[in-house]
Structures are given as structure tokens and as C-alpha cells.
Amino acid sequence: MLKIGMSVNNIKKKRKQKGIDVEKGENERLKNKKILVCGLIILILIVFLIVLKNKIQRIFYPKLHEEFVSMYSDEYGVDENLVFAVIKAESNFQEDAVSHKDALGLMQIMKETAEDVARKYNIEIDFNNSEREILNVQNNIKIGTKYLAVLLEKYKNIEVAVAAYNAGIGTVDNWIEKEIIKSDGSDIENIPYKETNNYVRKILRNYKIYQDLYK
């Protein structure tokens, strides 16, 4: 009788243990399932935030007037992202922008510079109404992009080219001649004009943002 009682107790213990093991296994499966679901939710949120971030950034870094920018970037061999970076920094896409120095339009071109570029490279504008012509969106982008192309061809790098776009060719040539800055654009921190120094950095930052946003 004692042996039978012990056997019954052992069976009960084994069943109880088995039930505990089954419960543990079920709990473990539920735990793993929760971890998997949480992981998927986190992954979805990360993807959503990346997409949302890009959409928000594109609001602040748009590609307005893309038809003209693409057309003249292709024609003159300039990366369109660089043109958009310049427009963003110069006028923030304000078509009728006029600076305190009388730079005009989207790409903030000085009247004398625009007229000079138009004459040298046979860009048709009405010189009797040149200010109005330069403020025209298509003309402004065409002349500004051509001027960028000329500077890039002259200096062979973006850093010095955009410094000249801001400070002028004569000023930048003088800096290079006096060894204030290097001609290869490797020491933009040495640009002596604070405005131009900050301008070059802003263009490079905008350019990188446009490249990343519109891959």
C-alpha cells in the first residue's frame, strides 16, 4: 500500500511538474511573441520617422522651378543640387528678392554681373529693361547657373567657386595670390570675410542636404 501511495504521489508530482513546464513554455512563447511584435512596431516607427523626416525636410529644402534648374544645369554642366543650394542660401526661393546691395532675384545676381554674363555668353535679355529681365525666373536661373559654371571652370572646385560667387572674382583671386586661401579650396576656414566664410559653409551644408534628400 505504501509503494502504491508513493507511486500515485510521484505521478501527481510529475503531472504537476509537466503542467508547470508547459506553462513555462507557453509563457516563454508569449514573451518571445511580445518581443517580436515590439521589435516590428519599433522598426515600423523608425521607417515612418525616416520617411516623415525626409518629407518635412523637403518642405524646407524644395526643388521649386525644377524645370528651369534641370534644363540649364544640364546645358552648362552644373550639378542641379548645387544650383538649388545656392538659391536656398541666396533668396530662399523668393523670386522678387532684392538685397541691400541690389542683388536680384532667386540667385541674387548683381545687375552688372548679369549683364556681363549675358553679353559674353549670348544670353538674350532686353538690356534696356535689364533689372526686370534679370528678375524673370527663367532668365535669373539661366544667367546664375551659367555664372556658376564659369566659376567652377575657373577654380576647379566648389568651395572657391562659391566664395567667388559671393565675394567676387577679383577679391578671391587676390586672396589666392596673397596665399590667404589655397586655390584648391582645402582651407575655407581662412576666408577673411566673415560673410563669405559663413556663406561657403552654408552652401556646402545645403548642397549635402539636397544630395541626401534627392538621391
Q: What does this entry look like structurally?
A:
It is a single chain. The protein has 215 residues and is an all-alpha fold. Helices cover 72% and strands 0% of the residues. It has nine helices and no strands. Helix 2 packs parallel to helix 6, helix 6 crosses helix 7 (158-167) and helix 7 (158-167) packs across helix 9. It is elongated and about 95 Å long. The chain starts with a helix and ends with a helix. The mean pLDDT is 89.
Outline of this structure?
With 215 residues, the chain is an all-alpha fold. The protein has helices spanning 2-60, 66-76, 80-90, 111-120, 130-135, 137-155, 158-167, 169-177, 194-213. The radius of gyration is 33 Å and the shape is elongated.
Give the helix/strand class. mainly alpha
Q: What does the main sheet amount to?
A: none
SSE string? HHHHHHHHH
Helical amount: over 70%
The tally of helices reads: 9
User: How many strand elements?
Assistant: 0
Low-confidence parts, pLDDT < 50 over ≥5 residues?
none
Integer average pLDDT: 89
- For the terminal residues, how far apart are their CA atoms? 84 Å
| Radius of gyration, in angstroms, nearest whole number | 33 Å
Q: Report strand %.
A: under 5%
- Overall geometry: elongated
